[in-house]
Design a protein that fits this description.
Length: 160
């Protein structure tokens, strides 16, 4: 499998009516990295990087463990998860479409909460860029898709 970068505009990939509710357009970056890792594993025997599973409670009705902003703990960490302006959840949103069921829901964080995380757009971008580089280093995003993942940053959500 040849690693080719994503080329379409990240903000234009959300199907009509789904943007901001259940669509995470950056998923193709992660899927491509996963397929690349799978092919490498099959062809060379080099296993993909191990990652802690998403944390869950125990008992008869287990639930995902979330932080104070509703973001799941553990699992594959991507820049939109580690440098949030939204709560991304695997729980399907109000739209019953198949894509929403697969990709979960997106809920914007309150402006005040975003301001607590990022005093300036520059600080947001510094943190987001570092998260992209960590995701590439961990193998969750291909180097060829680094710029595409950077394009998913939302500095306009930082009002400071």
């Amino acid at each position: 499998m040849t690693a080719t970068p994503l080329t379409s505009s990240p903000r234009s990939r959300a199907p009509s009516g789904l943007a901001g509710r259940c669509w995470a357009a950056w998923h193709p970056c992660v899927v491509k990295a996963a397929l690349h890792a799978l092919e490498t594993w099959v062809s060379t025997g080099t296993a993909p990087a191990a990652v802690a599973r998403i944390e869950t409670t125990t008992g008869d009705d287990p639930h995902v463990v979330r932080d104070g902003d509703g973001i799941a703990k553990g699992g594959i960490r991507t820049p939109p998860v580690d440098v949030p302006v939204n709560t991304l959840s695997g729980t399907p949103g109000p739209n019953p479409s198949v894509i929403c069921t697969l990709f979960g829901s997106t809920t914007p964080l309150p402006t005040g909460r975003i301001a607590q995380f990022y005093p300036s757009r520059d600080q947001y971008m510094t943190k987001y860029t570092a998260a992209v580089d960590r995701a590439v280093k961990a193998g969750f995003v291909l180097q060829a898709d680094r710029d595409a993942m950077l394009a998913y940053a939302q500095p306009d959500r930082v009002t400071a």
